[in-house]
Amino acid sequence: MQNKTIDIICHRRSIRSYQSTALTTEQIESLVQAAQSAPSSNFLQCATIIRITDSKNRAKLAHYAGDQEYILQAPEFWVFCADFNRHFQIAPTIPLEKAEQLLVGCIDTALMAQNTVIAAESLGLGTVYIGGLRNNIEKVTQLLALPKYVLPLFGLCIGYPDQNPDRKPRLPKELVFFENHYQPINHQLLAQYDTQMRQYYDHRLTNQKTNGWSDKIVEKIIKGQRDFILNYLHKQGWITK
């Protein structure tokens, strides 16, 4: 069963090339309204968006994220942060050091961001998440003057697409959707999916690859470890208990 909203969600792709057309004030207001309409655990509303309009700051963030040029090219670049500092200002004695606050903040922020993405798609805009900000998370924190209990999770490029990439095939439903209890991996389905991914990469016009999906899991997980993150979280007041 399909409708317009489901069709938008299912055809979303990451956009890494943008037209120069600026978003209107009304579009930006609509995106923020959609973001704020996301569910929030206990209605704590523990997420904050920082819109980056300073070109020098944008250039620094692009560099911190691994010199990703589309951060500079996109008309809009927003940084999404888990934020309990607002609550700390209201009630400085509340305990915020436990792991649950980190989970709640990350979940609230991710829901807000995905609402933004879906709303942007509905307006004919494209987006791409930028998790690379966490490569230099302390520098990002300093640049954005983030106080204690604020965590910059990722950036988001927003703008009119200047490319039309194919959508990456997703894992078979049977590998991610179970009933009543967890299921061991079906290796036959996984092998079929790896073949599908190899075909996708082979026919893709840019950044062609020869591997499937599971071939690169170990490499990607090791590459994305960011061993400094735990110490950073402790410095920002997160999960110290």
What is the strand and helix layout of this fold?
Blueprint: H1 4-10, H2 25-36, E1 47-51, H3 55-64, H4 70-73, E2 76-83, H5 85-90, H6 99-122, E3 126-130, H7 137-143, E4 150-159, H8 187-203, H9 217-223, H10 229-235
Domain Nitroreductase: 11-160
Keywords: Flavoprotein, FMN, NADP, Oxidoreductase
Pfam families: Nitroreductase (PF00881)
Uncertain regions spanning at least 5 consecutive residues = none
- Sheet with the most strands, sense and barrel status: 4 strands, antiparallel
CATH-defined topology of the largest domain:
NADH Oxidase
- Overall mean pLDDT: 95
Backbone CA Rg: 19 Å
Number of strands: 4
Note the run of SSEs as H and E.
Answer: HHEHHEHHEHEHHH
**CATH superfamily of the largest domain, called what?**
NADH Oxidase
Supply the CATH class of the largest domain: Alpha Beta
Strand content: 5-15%
User: How far apart lie the N and C ends?
Assistant: 46 Å
Number of domains: 2
Class computed from helices, strands and strand pairing: alpha+beta
Percent helix: 40-55%
- The largest sheet has its strands arranged as 1-2-4-3
Question: Globular, elongated, flat, extended or rod-shaped: what is the shape?
Answer: globular
* Number of helical stretches of at least 4 residues: 10
* Quaternary structure annotation: single chain
**CATH-level-2 architecture of the largest domain:** 3-Layer(aba) Sandwich
Pfam family, one: Nitroreductase
Keywords: Flavoprotein, FMN, NADP, Oxidoreductase
Protein name: Oxygen-insensitive NADPH nitroreductase
Organism: Gilliamella apicola
